[in-house]
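Hi all, posting the design record for the shared folder.

TITLE: backbone redesign
STEP: 1 of 1
STRUCTURE INPUT:
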């Protein structure tokens, strides 16, 4: 009666091969997971940069608009100042202009602060969600 049993070396070689295949599969999975997470983070950064750029353009446009308004107001003030006939009229005109400009600049600063806050929040949102997805991607 002959039994066919594999020699121990063949069995050990098969176990080694199985272990190496499992390690290779794990390595491929880890590499794919890393690639997906990296891609997700990169996409979040692209979105963030795009939103930030648009926000900076909006902010700069608002600054230019405010500069034009303030320059126009100053030119009008100078034109009215040229028609001043007494020191009392000069003081009254100067006080009125200063009061108006203080109110205007306060409103402008408030608008710029709100815009900056909005830009910051909208810029960071893709980072929060993108990196959350990158770290929580399925394995």
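Okay, here is what came back for every position:
SEQUENCE:
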């Amino acid at each position: 009666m002959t039994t066919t049993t594999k020699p121990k070396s063949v069995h050990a070689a098969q176990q080694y091969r199985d272990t190496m295949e499992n390690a290779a599969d794990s390595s491929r999975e880890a590499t794919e997971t890393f690639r997906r997470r990296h891609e997700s983070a990169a996409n979040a950064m692209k979105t963030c940069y795009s939103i930030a750029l648009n926000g900076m353009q909006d902010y700069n446009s608002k600054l230019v608009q405010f500069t034009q308004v303030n320059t126009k107001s100053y030119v009008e003030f100078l034109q009215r100042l040229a028609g001043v006939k007494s020191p009392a009229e000069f003081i009254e005109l100067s006080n009125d202009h200063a009061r108006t400009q203080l109110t205007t600049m306060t409103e402008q600063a408030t608008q710029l602060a709100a815009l900056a806050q909005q830009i910051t929040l909208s810029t960071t949102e893709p980072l929060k969600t993108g990196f959350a997805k990158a770290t929580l991607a399925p394995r």
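COMMENT: The chain has a mean pLDDT of 88.
Let me know if anyone wants the other runs.
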